[in-house]
Amino acid sequence: MSYLIHLKCRECGRTYPAEPLAACEECWAPLEAVYGYDSIWAEVPRSALASRPKTMWRYRELLPLEGEPRDGLATGFTPLVPAPRLAEALGAREIYLKNDSVNHPTLSFKDRVVAVALGKAREFGFDTVGCSSTGNLANAVAAQAAAGGFKSFIFVPADLEPEKIVGTLVYGATLVRVEGNYDLVNRLCSEIAQKHSWGIVNVNLRSYYSEGSKTLGFEVAEQLGWRLPQNVVIPMAGGSLITKVAKAFGELQKLGWVEPAKTRFFGAQATGCSPITTAAKNGNPEITPQKPATIAKSLAIGNPADGYYAVKTILGSGGAGEDVSDAEIVEGIRLLANTEGIFTETAGGVTVAVARKLIRQGLLNPDETTVLAITGNGLKTIGAVSQELAAEAAIRPMLADFEERYLAAAGAA
Ligand SMILES: *Cc1c(COP(=O)(O)O)cnc(C)c1O
Ligand SMILES: [Zn+2]
Predict the structure, then answer these.
(1) How far is the CA of 289 from the CAs of 168, 296, 305, in angstroms?
(2) Could you identify the atom of ligand 1 that is nearest to the CA of residue 136?
(3) I need a surface site. Which of 83, 114, 129, 179 has the fewest CB within 10 A?
(4) How far is the CA of 30 from the centre of ligand 2 (A)?
């Protein structure tokens, strides 16, 4: 069933058989999955998808599994919703939200990458899986490992949000909190992957894991009626998602499933961890690592593995990178909730606030169609907004008490 041919180094072009490999042995660059596009083109018409279940697996010919998928069978095909009230607030004509804050089963886009990674872990015969994570990946690996019968070891920075800790432990995963930021956790994980024969989804399974991100792009195109948007705004941590949405749009054009079109890619980060947007603003893809200090912990990767390629994607598309302060992130979360009734986590606040900033700067054309990637759920980062949203003291169960409160509120308005 698989159309995967091999893995190919993004730098030197050396090819490798489809095995669990972390990076090119010669130049340490990431490895990319390469498919037989001519065969897919000849054998799989776009119309074949129409009768398939509405999950990410409807695009299975463009994913790297050999056999039938067994993990994440309900993952993906999240809503693409028009956002007219947000558009009005931002002075834009047409905005859509790709709402992965309701992705199955753990409410973030990371369920997509984990579904693919665990499928490959199964094919490679690993009984134990793991990851280094800024939170959402931890939740997704723990949940899908539990459902798939894998043991799991999850490594996270010690200061992770309590919701993401509980949302990992509840699935019975072994959670290891590490003193240090994500980049140190990730380095430890690479050493562990060499010592133990485990499938670490973002180390030795990374080239498969990252392919799962493409499905967000496939879905956006299909949900727009097999059309590519003029602009996308995508939050960046390691920088993989944005490059893989670009790969997805490229594959759809190669297969003739969409008309050729140019999409501008806008990358969003928090100013407190902005190695990719800083490089994009400098017009140079070389990344200078940073020490993260932001409430957007899910994006807090100071030395992003795919940062170089993310900048190239952004600059090559005619887009831009932009970052926003923690205060703006909170404003972004509240603006999205107030206008569209969607409660996103800090990463979604970054996306909304960056879109607003780009429109104000004239870098994002408000007369064009723009898709914002809302990648995680607000219930996982309650602490980011709980101080500003503290409830008032309770009233007695008496009409007079309510009327007093009502008049005070009306007076304040
Ligand atoms: C991981 C993550 C991202 C960014 O993913 P990368 O592929 O590492 O750039 C965006 N949003 C959320 C909520 C995430 O958890
Ligand atoms: Zn190489």
Answers:
(1) 28, 17, 10
(2) 15
(3) 179
(4) 8
Helix (H) or strand (E) holding 325, with range, is none
Q: Alpha carbon 219 to chain centroid distance? A: 14
Buried b (16+ CB within 10 A) or exposed e, 103-133: bbbbbbbbbbbbbbbbbbbbbeebebbbbbb
Per DSSP, the chain holds a count of helices (H) and strands (E) of 15, 13
Question: What CATH class has 80-106+215-386?
Answer: alpha beta
Ligand 2 midpoint to CA 20 (Å): 16
Instruction: Show the tokens assigned to 291.
Output: 């020490």
Which ligand 1 atom lies nearest to the CA of residue 244? 7
Residue found under tokens 């709402």: 99
Domain extent listing, the chain: 80-106+215-386
> Would you tell me how many other CB atoms lie within 10 Å of the CB of residue 372?
27
- What's the CA gap between 328 and 321, in Å, rounded? 16
Ligand 1 atom closest to the Cα of residue 135 is 15
C-alpha to C-alpha distance for 297 and 294, rounded to whole angstroms: 6
Flag whether the pTM goes above 0.90: yes
> Residue 354 and residue 329: Cα distance in Å, rounded?
9
Residue nearest ligand 1's atom 11 by CA: 375
Question: Which ligand is in closest contact with the Cα of 347?
Answer: 1
Q: Which of 193, 159, 188, 153 is nearest to 171 (CA)?
A: 153
Ligand 1 pocket test: which of 99, 101, 108 has the largest number of ligand atoms within 8 Å of its C-beta?
108
Ligand 1 centroid to 242 CA: how many Å?
A: 9
